[in-house]
Amino acid sequence: MSRPVICCDRLGVTLGGMKVLDDLSITVNEGDYLAVLGPNGGGKTTLLRVILGLEKPSSGAVTVFGEPPGSTPGRLGYVPQRLFFDRDFPISVNEVVLMGRLPKRKLMRRYNREDRKKADEVIETVGLSRLKHNRIGTLSGGELQRTLIARALAGDPELLLLDEPTASVDPDMKTTIYDLLDVLKERHTIVLVTHDTGTVGRNVSRVACLNCTLGMQGPAAAFGPESLAGLYRHPVEVVLHNHPGRDTHEPNDHHA
Amino acid sequence: MPDILHFEFMRNALLAAILSSVACGIIGSYVVVRKIGSISGGIAHTAFGGIGLGYYLGINPLLGVIPFSLLAAIGIGLLTRKAKVAEDTAIGAFWATGMAVGVILIGLTPGYAPNLFSYLFGNILTVPASDLRLILLLDILIGGLCWLFSKELLAVSFDEEYARVSGLKTLALDLLMLSLIALTVVIMVRVVGIVMVIALLTIPAAVARIFSRTLPGMMALAVALSVVFNFAGLWLSWVFDVASGATVILVAALVFMFAGLWSAIAGRKRN
Q1: What CATH number is given to the structural domain containing B157?
Q2: Which of A21, A179, A183, B247 would bridge B233 by S-S if both were Cys, CB 3.0 to 4.6 A apart?
Q3: Domain presence at residue A58
Q4: In A, which residues are within 8 Å of B214 by CB distance?
């Protein structure tokens, strides 16, 4: 059995008097590709923020790599929802990606050749070499999202945390991003927060459904439309993407 | 125009324009991309207390401005980030308190307060050589710190949360940036005065932003623009015999207006 990366033990979080997470216990092991699903306001983003050390639990305990959250910045890569910064900021793709090297470089030191090499490498990985020097304001939603993924990868993280990486990205680009994650899961532990049920499929190794507390969790294969529908209280389309030939379910077209 | 260079005060004025532009282009760029113009205005006005202190103690008012503006920077920074006071409330409280302290101290100072007007609205033509040395020193300090912390300051400016996740001490970096603004205010007081500092901190950088792809590029262009605004304002104030600081601001505002129009038109074409 691989070692645990994230352990949440009866985690509770209260924000502004509202119970956002309650009695949540979940363990993410090395090599997992966990999709955290759930309705809006179900606490998905809060869970990520607790893991990152941005939000303090009000009860229960969380450890990341066996340490309190926030104390191992160099070992995790974070892809935030892209809506929270200024798209007009005068900064290039390359400079954003270099920020991923922050935990590796001491205060007051410049980025060195190794940092630039690594940045080039991950920009290549996400397929943005052509746009390396473009200002981020000129990118499409999908290109910007890939820039943020590259930034997270630049620090050589063991754990990748992604918050709604496909929100407001066009369908073709969604596929590209998920294909990229399929490659990345070989070398990284991944936690993906999404309400895009189109991702639930064989590529994700486990699924957790979050609605304040853990609705259910298990291997992805155990999840059918019925169980998700129970969580959302309306029918949910479960889609397996990009491997139509090997699908056991009826392949649906999630572009529709 | 060269004939006006025969006067020492004019050479000092041009030197002050160049030196102050360095700080205001660099720091102004941070102010604009972080949208903290109103905090900067608060720091500048609080600094009036320092001018009062300078008069009261009979020292160079600029030396009184340094502790007051730094106190305002740290105070507003801590109140908003630690005590969760709304930013505009903290700014308003410091702004008015600083001015009140200044008014009281000037009132307590026996006799008449000479040149008070020049600290409020600037008078680049009366910058003494000793102030030029102080400005140069502050320039070196501000430029040096910005260079040392360039990657950290860029990170907190662009995406503060990500900077924090990356292990940066974002509160300390924020306070550093506010302190740098405070020192820039000290420099600008001589040139445009406390009341108009905010215009030179924001307008050159705001115009530069339209034409820049990176933050260092924006800073360089903002410095250049600030020099141009200062020279043009100074020259026009000489020609029309009007207040130099106010003329510099009006030149900057005019260019800002045209740049805004240009970018609106260019933006419409692009879409």
Answers
A1: 1.10.3470.10
A2: B247
A3: yes
A4: 90-92, 95, 135
